[in-house]
Amino acid sequence: MTTIRAEWTKLRTVRATWWTVLAAVVLMAATAGQLAIYVANGNTNDDPSDDAGVVPLGSVLIDSLELVQYAVLALGLLMITSEFTTGTIRTTLQCTPSRGRVLLAKAAVAAAVTFVLGLLLGAVGALVASLVLGEWGAAPVAGTLRDVVALATYLALIGVLALGLGAVLRSAVLTLTVLLAVLMIVPLSLREPDITALHRIADAFPGEAGQHLLAGDGQPYPPAVGLLLLAGWAAVALLGGRAALRRRDA
Predict the structure, then answer these.
(1) Contact predicate 96/3, CB 8 Å
(2) DSSP secondary structure letter of residue 204
(3) Which residues sit opposite 188 in a β-bridge?
(4) pLDDT tens digits for 13-22?
(5) How far is CA 229 from the centre of its chain?
(6) Which element (helix H / strand E) includes 56?
């Protein structure tokens, strides 16, 4: 618990943390509002081909997350890469020599903070979307709550994934580049050819697993499988980070 408290203190006393939180909230409000405007305008213009009809707020939240997630990822990766950049990782490891304990403490704080931030972002996005959509928005309480919790869970797991990759790569820029590739670029590239086997491989990537978790559909696998896949990616990243910390000097 002492290590966890120390990691939480370091995170909350860094100004960049709060700027990142603010950026994520503003980005969610702006993105959700813009997507809701597209839906409302499409339903009220003279072109019936772009009528979306009444849409659930959850669909707006999921679409908004495609951009907003990268602001949240910054929290996870900066928890470790900033220490390598400034050299404070040496002090951290002197205070707690166990690399595994340090990384687990960071993972616990990253998961908790990004989960709570995810709940906040979901609430902000739902509020903005409902105000903009008006009659074109459907907001069943149970369904919207489920979408917000799923969104927060997804962000918590990819926050831990970012932390683990950051421990391996030690560079914020390189870590963000790899995350962009893993979450978006590689799965999209695998889906370009109309080859079933490649589509199945793409479905195993964390971004795709997250989409199935958030959408709550059963194809090609149920949300619970998407959750397990995401957790598996996060666990593998943490194991890789622990191995890198033990093998290389800080």
Answers:
(1) yes
(2) T
(3) none
(4) 888 899 999 9
(5) 14
(6) strand 55-56
